[in-house]
TrEMBL record:
This is V-type proton ATPase subunit S1/VOA1 transmembrane domain-containing protein. GO terms for molecular function: ATPase activator activity. It comes from the Eukaryota. It is a single-pass membrane protein. Residues 407-445 form the V-type proton ATPase subunit S1/VOA1 transmembrane domain. Residues 1-16 form the signal peptide. Belongs to the vacuolar ATPase subunit S1 family.
């Protein structure tokens, strides 16, 4: 399913130019291709590695992104093993007029600021790169399409027609690091929660830099309790009506404006009423009016175009025990990839994930026998390439490509399909058996005396 979506999303991405950037020595995160080219020098050169058909899809195939076997391709391996790598889109051609264009290994001369290693297709490009790139020190490699780099001033600039190309001077980015003080908290706002909270306050408007969007209608708090080695689970659904949220501008929705990197969402929820959690039909715990459920999600996008939840921090949450159940609290608990891998929060760049209810993410608490889990209810998450068609009216949109976390076949439908197949199998077996019933060739043994029936009149 995800592979399919990745393949489809590649068709959508070809309006702009794809590029894979990699370097061993230089940090390149967040630096655009144009900036890299304009600041290139002979000491810190840029090496374009191009072929006419390059797309991220071609790269993913070469990198064996969809199979478990490691890549054998030289370029794909170099990217994977490099210290810094990321992928970028850029909407229009990069000017590199003084570049040294190399189509065979003997044309290489040291001392240029920008090199273009131009192959006919992937294989010749890869061979050229293998022969030359090790000779160029301290470089940044950029694998992209031949068309994406113009080394002839007179060529007509080709402009992509994607929405990414929106002639945007989106104003201040709101991404500057914050001091972290809580005085500037905006809100409280009523749910559904939207991060960034567009249309809640005039100060927060969609901009080109804010490429992600997060939506949430409620949470379920799940409490795992260990009694004599038996795990029991109780849970409380907290609807949006019983919650409010706050927002710290510049800290609570931090997204890199590209496909590789971190997307951080912080949900600062506060309860506005007591909510009771139950184990089967007995009350097990309460969440109290005024308590907070303060959760940060750390979503990370990789160079192959997937994004997934890689970590989470529960800044604060508290349950009060009922009856024989004990209470517990959590403060600043961080969990890593192993704890969140089954939450099912992952998709493909450019797509949004829609989920009726995610799996809970569990955090250790003050009590060793109790874990508190948070599940997101009716949520939609997109990390990259949110649409801002009418940005001046404070409306950011999820893209139309969405992936549902439930998948096409639920366990229930699989049960139906499998039992139907078994029944059809039985029916076919019976039918074939009936088909093969024939009358016998002879009713009696020829060697025996014929049966004579005398009829006397
Ligand atoms: C974010 O990315 C889009 C599309 O690549 C681009 O148009 C926009 O200028 C970028 N914004 C910033 C602040 O880098
Ligand atoms: C809590 O949510 C329930 C269900 O939506 C609603 O009926 C109730 O009024 C809410 N309580 C408060 C105090 O808002
Ligand atoms: C997010 O997760 C990544 C990958 O596990 C990690 O390297 C990074 O430090 C985390 N960032 C934050 C802010 O926790
Ligand atoms: C913004 O909110 C107001 C009411 O709060 C609503 O009428 C309007 O449609 C909203 N605008 C957008 C673009 O969602």
């Amino acid at each position: 399913m995800r592979v399919l979506i990745a393949v489809f999303s590649l068709f959508i991405a070809v309006h702009a130019y794809d590029a894979v950037l990699f370097s061993n020595q230089r940090e390149i995160a967040g630096v655009s291709v144009e900036q890299l080219v304009s600041s290139a020098t002979a000491e810190e050169p840029i090496v374009f590695i191009v072929n006419p058909d390059f797309t991220l899809g071609q790269f993913s195939v070469r990198a064996n992104a969809y199979s478990a076997e490691p890549a054998t391709d030289y370029l794909a391996k170099s990217v994977k093993n490099s210290n810094f790598h990321e992928s970028q889109y850029f909407p229009s051609q990069v000017e590199a007029t003084s570049a040294q264009v190399i189509t065979s290994a003997d044309q290489y001369k040291a001392g240029s600021a920008v090199y273009v290693l131009a192959g006919e297709e992937w294989v010749s490009m890869e061979q050229l790169a293998e022969q030359i790139i090790s000779k160029i020190d301290n470089s940044v490699g950029i694998i992209t399409a031949t068309d994406a780099v113009s080394h002839d001033k007179n060529r007509v600039k080709r402009v992509a027609t994607d929405e990414m190309d929106d002639a945007g001077t989106g104003g201040s980015t709101g991404l500057t690091a914050s001091t972290g003080s809580n005085e500037n908290l905006l809100g409280p706002y009523a749910l559904p929660l939207v991060l960034p909270p567009y249309n809640k306050t005039d100060s927060i408007k969609p901009s080109d830099a804010q490429s992600c969007l997060f939506y949430l209608e409620g949470v379920t708090v799940v409490v795992q309790q260990k009694n004599d080695k038996v795990l029991t689970y109780s849970n409380a659904y907290v609807p949006g009506n019983n919650l409010t949220y706050k927002y710290l501008d510049g800290a609570d929705a931090l997204c890199v404006n590209t496909t590789v990197g971190e997307y951080i969402f912080r949900l600062r929820l506060t309860l506005t009423t007591d909510v009771v959690g139950k184990h089967q039909n007995t009350e097990a715990f309460t969440l109290n009016n005024g308590d907070s459920i303060d959760l940060t999600l750390n979503i990370t996008g990789d160079v192959f175009g997937y994004w997934s939840l890689k970590g989470a921090t529960l800044h604060s949450a508290k349950i009060t025990g009922k009856g024989t159940n004990k209470g517990a609290s959590v403060s600043e608990q961080k969990v890593g990839p192993a704890a969140v891998q089954y939450a099912g929060i992952n998709s493909v760049q450019g797509w949004s994930l829609v989920c009726g209810q995610t799996q809970a993410i569990f955090f250790p608490t003050s009590d060793d026998n109790i874990k508190i889990g948070i599940a997101l209810v009716n949520t939609q998450i997109q990390t990259f390439n949110v649409r801002n068609p009418d940005k001046w009216r404070a409306a950011a949109h999820f893209t139309l490509q969405t992936e549902d976390c439930t998948g096409t076949f639920s366990p229930g439908s699989w049960m139906g399909i499998v039992s139907a197949l078994v029944l059809i199998g039985g029916l076919l077996f019976g039918y074939v058996m009936l088909q093969s019933v024939q009358t016998m060739d002879r009713f009696d043994d020829p060697k025996q005396k014929q049966i004579v029936i005398n009829v006397r009149e």
